[in-house]
C-alpha cells in the first residue's frame, strides 16, 4: 500500500493502486459494486479479473486504514480505437462488463492513449465523508499525471453515467455531457482544454445550494395571434403543471391578489408554458472555437442539464410579457447560468429532441418563443438567485452579483471593485427571514432556513419577492418597448409625425399603473419594491426615455419647419409660374415681333414660350432636388460620426 494519507472527520485514508494489489483483492471491489449499483449494472468477478490480468494499471482505490477496507474506487483502462469509437460516437448500447480483455489497449508511448472509465463507486457508508471523494479525485488525477510523466500521453477520457451520482462526479471533473444512449444512460467526454484543466486540478466545486429564477422580457406586434393560442389554454396548462411549478404559480397569483391593489391585476394572465431541459455550459462554448479540437466537429461543452419550468406572465393590453424560467435546486454554478442569460445563450430542449446517435438538439429560448408564440425579446433579462448561504469564496458572490461566470475558461482573474464589494456586504432586506444583495442584473436572496425547507416551502416564501420583481421588470419592459419605438423613429431619420408621438404617449400611459408604489398594500412590500426598482435602475431608464422622447419631438419640430419651408418654396414657384402665365399674351407678342423682324414664322412664338416655361420649371425642380439630397447626405454623415471614442474591448 502506498500513497499519501488524508485524515477525514474521524478516519484516515490512503491510496492503493491497481498494480499494488493482486487479483485476490477484486472481491472487495465487487462488494462495493453490489452496494452501489442496480443488479443490471453489477458485473461478474471473472470478467473483472480477466481485464485486470490484461492490464493491472487500471484501478485507483481509497482505503480506510482503520478498517483496512476499500471505501471507494475508480476503474479505468486504455481502449483500442474501435471500442473508443463505439463508446463515444457510434454505439447505442452501453458497454460495461461485456468488454473483453482483447478490446483493451496497452499504454503507448508512441500514440495518444484514450481511457474509458468503466466504474466509479463509493461505498454507501463513506458517501458523507468528503475526504473520500476528494482523495479519490486527487488520486485519479495524480495517476493520470504519472502516466503522462512516463511518456503515456492521454488524448481523452470517456465514461458512461448510469445514475445521477455518476453524472455529478463526471460533470464536476471537466467531463462534457456528450450524448445519450439506450436506457437514458449518458456518455461523457473529457479532452482538449478540459482535460488540461482536469490534470491541473483546476476544478470548480459548488459550496452552496440555490434555486435560480431567470426573467426575460418580451413584446409582440398588435397583429400577433399566435400568443392567443397559448393564453386560451391557460386553465388546461396550469392544471397540468408539475407539482413544484404549480405550487409557485399558485403562490404568485396569491401574492397578486392579496398584496397588490390595482385593477391591473385583472389584466394579467399567468400561463404555464412547459417543462424543458436546459443546457448548462461554460463560457468557452459561446466565446469561440476550441483550438485543441481543430478538425473535429464543434459541439457545445455541456456541463449537464437542468430541468427548467417555463411560465409566462402576460399583460395583453400593452402587449408585454415576462417569461420566468425556474431551476429548483440547481446542481451547477449560479454565476455561469447568469452569464448565459447575459450572452443570450439559453438553450432548451424537450424530451426526445435528439438525433439517431443520441446527440441532443437544442433551441434558443428566444427563437422558441418567437416561432411558437410570436414573441420578441424586449430588453435585458434579470436574475433572482435564492441561496442557502454565501459561497465560501467571497469572490464568487461578487461574480454572482455581477452576473459574470466565476469558473471561466478564458480568464484567471475575477471582478472586484469598491462599489460591488459594498453591495456584497450591504443587505437590502426588509424582513428578518432573509438577506438581499442587489445589483442592476441580480437579486441574490439568502434564505436563512433554505436547507431545512422543502422546495414547495421555499417557493411560497420567495413568491412575495418574485412577484415584485416581475412587476418591476414590467416597468423596465415598458421603457424598453418605448425606447425601441423611438429608435425605429430615429432610423426613419425623424420622418414621423405628431400623430406618431401621440400614439407613443398613449402606449406609455397604459403602463403608468405599474409605476404606482401605493399599489402594494403593505408598507414592507412597498419598501421591497423600492429597493428592487432602485437596484434595477428603473428611474434612470425612465429619465433616459424622457430625454429621447424630447429629442424625437425636437426632430419632428425641425422636420415640420423644413416641410413648411419646402411648401413655401413650392408655393412661391407655383406663384411665379402663374405670374408668368398671366403675362403669356404680352411675352408671346414680343416674341412674334422679334421673329417677324428676322423672317421667322410668328406661329413658333407660342411654342417657344411653352418650352421656356417647362424648361425653367424643370431646372428649378432639379436644383431643389440636388440641394435636398445634399442636406440629407450631410445629416447622415453627422449622425454616423461617433460622438465618443469606442471603448477598447477586453480580451477574455
Short description:
With 652 residues, the chain is α+β, with helices and mostly antiparallel strands.
Describe this structure in words.
This protein is an alpha+beta fold and 652 residues long. Among the domains are: 5-199, Aminopeptidase, CATH 3.40.630.30; 213-381 and 455-480, no CATH class; 583-640, no CATH class. The protein is built from 19 helices and 18 strands. It has helices at residues 26-36, 45-54, 81-90, 130-149, 164-171, 192-199, 226-232, 234-240, 243-259, 334-343, 365-373, 394-402, 418-425, 455-491, 498-509, 523-535, 538-582, 584-597, 604-640, and strands at 5-7, 12-17, 59-64, 69-78, 113-122, 154-161, 176-180, 186-191, 210-219, 268-280, 304-315, 320-327, 347-349, 363-364, 376-377, 382-387, 434-438, 442-447. Strands 9, 10, 11, 12, 13, 14, 15, 16, 17 and 18 form a ten-stranded mixed beta sheet that branches. Strands 1-2-3-4-5-6-8-7 form an eight-stranded mixed beta sheet, sandwiched between helices. Helix 14 (455-491) packs across helix 16 and helix 14 (455-491) packs parallel to helix 17 (538-582).
Structural class: alpha+beta
CATH topology of the domain at 5-199: Aminopeptidase
End-to-end separation in angstroms reads 45 Å
CATH top level label of the domain at 5-199: Alpha Beta
CATH architecture of the domain at 5-199: 3-Layer(aba) Sandwich
User: Gyration radius, to the nearest Å?
Assistant: 35 Å
* CATH homologous superfamily grouping of the domain at 5-199: Gcn5-related N-acetyltransferase (GNAT)
Low-confidence parts lasting 5 or more residues at pLDDT below 50? Answer: 1-10, 287-296, 642-652
Amino acid at each position: 500500500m502506498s500513497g499519501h494519507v488524508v485524515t477525514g472527520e474521524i478516519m484516515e485514508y490512503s491510496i492503493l493502486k491497481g498494480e499494488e494489489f493482486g487479483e485476490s483483492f477484486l472481491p472487495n471491489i465487487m462488494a462495493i459494486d453490489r452496494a452501489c449499483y442496480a443488479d443490471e449494472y453489477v458485473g461478474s468477478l471473472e470478467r473483472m479479473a480477466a481485464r485486470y490480468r490484461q492490464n493491472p494499471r487500471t484501478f485507483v482505490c481509497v482505503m480506510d486504514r482503520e478498517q483496512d477496507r476499500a471505501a471507494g474506487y475508480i476503474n479505468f483502462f486504455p481502449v483500442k480505437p474501435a471500442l473508443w469509437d463505439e463508446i463515444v460516437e457510434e454505439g447505442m448500447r452501453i458497454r460495461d462488463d461485456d468488454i473483453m480483455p482483447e478490446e483493451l489497449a496497452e499504454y503507448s508511448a508512441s500514440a495518444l492513449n484514450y481511457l474509458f472509465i468503466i466504474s466509479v463507486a463509493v461505498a454507501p457508508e463513506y458517501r458523507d465523508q468528503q475526504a473520500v471523494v476528494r482523495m479519490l479525485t486527487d488520486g485519479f488525477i495524480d495517476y493520470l499525471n504519472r502516466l503522462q510523466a512516463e511518456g503515456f500521453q492521454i488524448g481523452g477520457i470517456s465514461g458512461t453515467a448510469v445514475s445521477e451520482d455518476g453524472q455529478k462526479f463526471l460533470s464536476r471533473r471537466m467531463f462534457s455531457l456528450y450524448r445519450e444512449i439506450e436506457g437514458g444512460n449518458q456518455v461523457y467526454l473529457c479532452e482538449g482544454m478540459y482535460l488540461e484543466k482536469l490534470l491541473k486540478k483546476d476544478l470548480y466545486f459548488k459550496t452552496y445550494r440555490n434555486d435560480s429564477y431567470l426573467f426575460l422580457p418580451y413584446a409582440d406586434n398588435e397583429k400577433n395571434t399566435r400568443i392567443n393560442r397559448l393564453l386560451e389554454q391557460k386553465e388546461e396548462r396550469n392544471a397540468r403543471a408539475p407539482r413544484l411549478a404549480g405550487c409557485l404559480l399558485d403562490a404568485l397569483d396569491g401574492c397578486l391578489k392579496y398584496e397588490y391593489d390595482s385593477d391591473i391585476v385583472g389584466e394579467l394572465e399567468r400561463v404555464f408554458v412547459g417543462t424543458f431541459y436546459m443546457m448548462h455550459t461554460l463560457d468557452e462554448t459561446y466565446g469561440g472555437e476550441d483550438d485543441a479540437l481543430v478538425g473535429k466537429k464543434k459541439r457545445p461543452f455541456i456541463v449537464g442539464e437542468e430541468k427548467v419550468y417555463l411560465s409566462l406572465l402576460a399583460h395583453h393590453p400593452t402587449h408585454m410579457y415576462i417569461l420566468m424560467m425556474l431551476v429548483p435546486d440547481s446542481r451547477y454554478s449560479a454565476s455561469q447560468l447568469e452569464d448565459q442569460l447575459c450572452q443570450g445563450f439559453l438553450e432548451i430542449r424537450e424530451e426526445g429532441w435528439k438525433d439517431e446517435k443520441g446527440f441532443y438538439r437544442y433551441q434558443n429560448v428566444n427563437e422558441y418563443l418567437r416561432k411558437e408564440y410570436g414573441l420578441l425579446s424586449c430588453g435585458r433579462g434579470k436574475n433572482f438567485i435564492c441561496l442557502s448561504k454565501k459561497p465560501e469564496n467571497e469572490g464568487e458572490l461578487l461574480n454572482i452579483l455581477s452576473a459574470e461566470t466565476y469558473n471561466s475558461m478564458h480568464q484567471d482573474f475575477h471582478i472586484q471593485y469598491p462599489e460591488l464589494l459594498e453591495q456584497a456586504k450591504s443587505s437590502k432586506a426588509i424582513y428578518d427571514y432573509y438577506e438581499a444583495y442587489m445589483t442592476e442584473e441580480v437579486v441574490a436572496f439568502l434564505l436563512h432556513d433554505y436547507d431545512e425547507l422543502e422546495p414547495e416551502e421555499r417557493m411560497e416564501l420567495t413568491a412575495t419577492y418574485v412577484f415584485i420583481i416581475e412587476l418591476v421588470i414590467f416597468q423596465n419592459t415598458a421603457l424598453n418597448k418605448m425606447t425601441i419605438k423611438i429608435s425605429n423613429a430615429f432610423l426613419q431619420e425623424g420622418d414621423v409625425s405628431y400623430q406618431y408621438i401621440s400614439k407613443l404617449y398613449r402606449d406609455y400611459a397604459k403602463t403608468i399603473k405599474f409605476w404606482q408604489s401605493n399599489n402594494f398594500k403593505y408598507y414592507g412590500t412597498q419598501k421591497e419594491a423600492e429597493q428592487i426598482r432602485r437596484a434595477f435602475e428603473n428611474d434612470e431608464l425612465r429619465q433616459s426615455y424622457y430625454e429621447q422622447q424630447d429629442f424625437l419631438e425636437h426632430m419632428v419640430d425641425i422636420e415640420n419647419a423644413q416641410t413648411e419651408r419646402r411648401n413655401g418654396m413650392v408655393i412661391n414657384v407655383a406663384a411665379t409660374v402663374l405670374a408668368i402665365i398671366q403675362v403669356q399674351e404680352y411675352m408671346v407678342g414680343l416674341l412674334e415681333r422679334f421673329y417677324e423682324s428676322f423672317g421667322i414664322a410668328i406661329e413658333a412664338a407660342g411654342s417657344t414660350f411653352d418650352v421656356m416655361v417647362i424648361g425653367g420649371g424643370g431646372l428649378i425642380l432639379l436644383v431643389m432636388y440636388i440641394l435636398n439630397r445634399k442636406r440629407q447626405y450631410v445629416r447622415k454623415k453627422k449622425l454616423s460620426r461617433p460622438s465618443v471614442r469606442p471603448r477598447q474591448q477586453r480580451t477574455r
